Amino acid sequence: MTSPNTSIEDVPLNNFHRLLTVRSGGGSFVDGYVLSIIGIAMLQVTAALNLTEFWQGMIAASALMGVFFGGFIGGWLTDRLGRKTVYFIGPSLFILCSLAQFWVESAAALFAFRFIIGLAVGIEYPVATSLLVEFLPKKQRGPRLAALTILWFAGAAFAYVVGNAILNSVGDDAWRYALASAAVIGLVLLLLRIGTPESARWLLSKGREREAEGVIQRVYGPRYSLRDLPEQPDEKKMTFSDLLHSGYGKRLFFVSVFWSCSIIPVFAVYAFAPKVLQALNLKGEWASYGSMAITLLFVVGCVLATRLINTIGRRSMLIHSFLWSGLSLLMLAVFSNGNEMLVLFLFGAYAVFIGGAQVLQLVYPNELFPTEVRAFAVGIGTSLSRVGAAVGTYLVPVSLQTLGIGNTMYVAAVVTFIGLMAAWAMAPETRSLNLRDAAALSS
């Protein structure tokens, strides 16, 4: 038997945890790939399907629209049907809709398939992160969840490599092969997830104690049991509405605000980096290489945050991330007419410092809510943040034309400082807590 003070959240990382990280992280990789591949293929798509400006915008935004609905649907399904069942929905939709894009002949059809792919992405966030966090030891929770953000950028980068290789080697129909290529990655992910067990915490929340016990012994060994799980079923099952009225509404507000404020400027900058840099007087190779450097520094920032998340804690990381990235944007506004090296330095500083807030997007929502509604809370955060991302991305060209680059950077800084205020006022510290204590309202 285990010692009285031991729980499954204190066990060392084992091969099951590593494999589950790959299984869930693979979803983030595919998300980055499918959301980025359309940008590479768009030039050929526009010519092949004779897209009007309206349809260009609609197809570009279709996946984000799908993510909005997918977050709500995926969170609800994950808490209702279980993590294991919903775990296979996203990859299945990736495969089917990616392949279907190969034969599209109209803008409306492509929009529909991209929208469903967005639904799949929205479903992935709550199910993959909930399943992962409910098995991980508490010391590995932060770093492993944070690593999913890095894998998203890796998937986006891989899309650029594969997409450009296809476009340069296939011909006029290359865009069809580029969009369909996501089906291969989706298939690998689907096969990789076969054999994944249901979450013992979810089974326990549904009163299925015998099945939960079996999962625990399968994953951790025969000497572990439900007694070693620091989360026991409540006599009264609370609905999502009950939880909001009992105090979790404040946490949901915090998650939605900080997630939106961390993602709005990033999506805008990431989508329009060359255009923004050009407005900041970086021309030609400066703009081209600057865009690549900034993309790389986003990854560097996420990697550094992943390494430091258990050292400096969640609350301190979020506050410092918003503070220093906001100051970087503020300085970009003040020195919008500065020389090339200063502009690139400040842009790079923003990309590195915002990494802390980026990786916490998947950490905080999974730690701050109980098992019954964890996935739904993550889904809501996903959905609401994408509304802000879509609006921010849409408004960047308008803002550059009407307000100018300096005022656009001021607006981005204000959004970031709103995130700072939310973090200062509401961010709890959950670094050393087990999931039960982290989700308790007294923490």
How would you describe this structure in keywords?
443 residues, mainly alpha, Growth Hormone, Chain: A, 2 domains, globular
Describe this protein's structure.
By secondary structure, this protein is mainly α. It has helices at 15-48, 53-81, 83-86, 89-100, 107-133, 138-167, 174-180, 182-192, 200-205, 209-220, 240-271, 273-279, 284-312, 314-334, 340-353, 355-367, 374-402, 404-426, 435-439. Helix content is 78%, strand content 0%. Mean pLDDT is 84; it is low at 1-5. The protein folds into 2 domains: 8-228, MFS general substrate transporter like domains (Growth Hormone, Chain: A), CATH 1.20.1250; 240-439, Growth Hormone, Chain: A. It starts with 14 loop residues before the first helix and ends with a helix. It is built from 19 helices and no strands. Belongs to the major facilitator superfamily. Sugar transporter (TC 2.A.1.1) family. One of its GO terms (molecular function) is transmembrane transporter activity.
